[in-house]
Amino acid sequence: MSTLTATQPTLPGRVAGLLPGLAIVTGIAVTAMALDRIPGIGSSGIGVLTVAIALGMLVSQFASARIHDRAAPGAAFSQRTLLRTGVALYGLRLTLHDIAAAGLHGIAVDVIMISAVLGTAWFVGTRLLKLDRDTALLVGMGSAVCGAAAVMATEPVLRAPPYKVAIAVATVTVFGSCAVFLYPALFPLLGLDPQQYGMFVGSTVHEVAQVVAAGKAVSASAGDEAVIVKLLRVAMLAPILIIIGRLVARTDKDETPGKSSAPIVPGFVIAFAGLVLLHSLGWLPAAAHAALLQLDGVLLALAMAALGWSARISMMKAAGPRPLVLGAVLFGVLTIGGYALNCALNLLPF
Where do the TM regions start and end (predicted)? Predict the structure, then answer.
């Protein structure tokens, strides 16, 4: 017993072990946030999370194996604890009023599009493109719900390795960025009024920042409508993760009997839903809410920097072009299928 105790690091020792990795991740995240403030980058819709993971991957390639070994505990802490905390705090960006404001039209189009994109990701990704389950679901979640944030929220449920997360983030970023420029250019040809266009944008574009850029490029009212519908998609993140958690737990148990699985309802998903409710009730002071949103942005940037740092370009190359092909297919479902669905729903009386 004494020998076991002696080999276990003390709390100060564990904290000290985290410091090298946290220092590296913090440096990458701070640089990414500074780059995101540059007008050309900040207004492009790419977002600080994508910049953080790209910069993390770049810096990682020039670091020695010794540095990677020393940074591993802090990077792992950022990928797990900080990531889950950041995803939970993301709930403070939503209220039940946002969900109600979208109306039956917004709820219907979001539910149908999310189901169609995830179903396509699973079938095309795993059956036709022969991708592994994790990559297909990560790309699908990023396309269906809210880009990089959805990819990160899904990672703890799947327990996917960092390089798969990096692949998914890169894929959804490419096509989400295309939408920022494509959608406003197509607006005169779509036959939609600004509110209908905003509904189309909010239900089909990947990232929240990209939705704002594509919506407000047409008009302020289109941008407002797009954000409301988009936030409804974000609100669906929690129930979708619960469903995926159940399916993954069942699959893992069938494939590996006796294997311990993740909780059916992860704690950070419960916290996410609870913070949505807390924000809806207005019990959180405005100053505290603003501070927590800033903290959330920092935590997510740190997590993305850590994911980029832990990813290996060699592993991403091994995946080949198939994730990008899947992203392109899902982009087609979102743009063409989403436009057709929105036009059809516009004919209904609600």
Answer: 15-35, 41-60, 99-124, 136-153, 165-186, 231-249, 261-284, 290-311, 323-341
DSSP class of residue 81 equals I
Expressed as residue numbers, the domain containing 52 is 15-346
Contact 264, 242 (CB under 8 A): yes
Prediction pTM value: 0.74
Query: Cα(257)–Cα(78) distance, rounded to whole angstroms?
Result: 31
Nearest-angstrom CA–CA distance, 113 and 335: 10
Residue 223 is assigned to a structural domain of this protein: yes
Number of domains in the chain: 1
**Is the Cβ–Cβ distance between 311 and 165 less than 8 Å?**
yes
Backbone torsion region of residue 178, taken as left when φ is above 0, otherwise alpha when ψ lies between -120 and 50, otherwise beta = alpha
Condensed to tens digits (0 to 9), the pLDDT of residues 203-213 reads 999 887 788 77
Instruction: List b or e across 75-106, with b for residues whose CB sees 16 or more CB atoms inside 10 angstroms.
Output: bebbbeebbbbbbbbbbbbbbeebbeebeebb
Encode pLDDT of 42-70 as tens digits: 666 567 877 888 888 889 888 888 998 89
Establish if 5 belongs to a structural domain.
no
Could you give the CA distance from residue 297 to residue 102 in angstroms, rounded to a whole number? 25
Kindly state whether residue 10 falls inside one of the protein's structural domains: no
CA dist 47 and 165 (Å) reads: 16
